[in-house]
Write a structure and sequence with these properties.
elongated, about 85% helix, mainly alpha, 4 helices, about 110 residues, single chain
């Protein structure tokens, strides 16, 4: 939708500024959640599913952030196949992060 509402150069600059911040925000939130979860499971004998799920989310968020420069390079160099593949992987990682977070919230809430 951004590219339909803004000229291509403005839309590109907007998204290049937005997504690194989006992934950094996710990493910060995930880090805070990870610390909170570790505090909850301290003293338990087994690794909690909550800790594992949270750690997975943080790792996937870090991978997503690390992919941003490669995605931007592929776009800048007009390597559409590479851009499509990298962007698709990044979207998939973001969806897995979202689904994992929703599942963890549902489990914690007792749904």
């Amino acid at each position: 939708m951004t590219f339909t509402r803004l000229p291509a150069d403005l839309a590109g600059r907007f998204l290049r500024g937005l997504f690194p911040r989006f992934f950094i925000f996710g990493l910060v939130c995930g880090g805070v959640m990870l610390v909170a979860v570790v505090a909850l499971v301290v003293g338990q004998r087994e690794v909690s599913w909550l800790l594992s799920g949270t750690a997975l989310m943080v790792v996937l968020e870090a991978i997503s952030l690390a992919m941003v420069p490669a995605i931007n390079r592929a776009r800048d160099e007009d390597r559409q196949q590479d851009f499509g593949r990298l962007h698709g992987i990044n979207v998939l990682l973001t969806l897995v992060i979202l689904a994992t977070g929703i599942a963890l919230l549902a489990i914690v809430a007792g749904f």
